[in-house]
Amino acid sequence: MPDNVMRCSFCGKVADEVARLIAGPGVFICNECVGLCEQLLSGQPMPTFPPLDGKSDDELLAQMVQLDSSRGQVEAAVQERVLRLRSRSVTWARIGAAVGISRQSAWERFSGEE
């Protein structure tokens, strides 16, 4: 069950763990991740991230929860766009084709009907 806490879609930190959280269309990015992006774009060496094998079970579980919460934010943004497209009479076939699924699968996933 996704929470409604705003968190960085890249690192998973919640808003009160960072100085700034910038909202985009269905995603958020924190000032720390923006800093990493600036380093990457300027050609500076990037810090390495520890391998998953070096993390404890608790660390992996915590990161999994953060990533899963970000997925909820993205799904909500996708659903908003589907509703907008349907209000413009865009067909389920066209919506499905855009995300690489059938018309029926799009209806099942996004219509909210069982």
UniProtKB/TrEMBL annotation:
TM annotation in the entry: none
- Which InterPro entries does this chain map to? Znf_CLPX-like, Znf_CppX_C4, Znf_CppX_C4_sf
List positions binding Zn(2+): 8, 11, 30, 33
Keywords, in A-Z order:
ATP-binding, Chaperone, Hydrolase, Metal-binding, Nucleotide-binding, Protease, Zinc
Question: What GO molecular functions are on record for this protein?
Answer: ATP binding; peptidase activity; protein dimerization activity; unfolded protein binding; zinc ion binding
Q: Where is the ClpX-type ZB domain?
A: 1-49
The domain of life for this entry's organism is Bacteria
Gene3D superfamilies from the entry? ClpX chaperone, C4-type zinc finger domain
A GO biological process held by the record: proteolysis
Keyword Hydrolase among record annotations: yes
Family, per entry: Belongs to the ClpX chaperone family.
Q: What is this protein called?
A: ATP-dependent Clp protease ATP-binding subunit ClpX
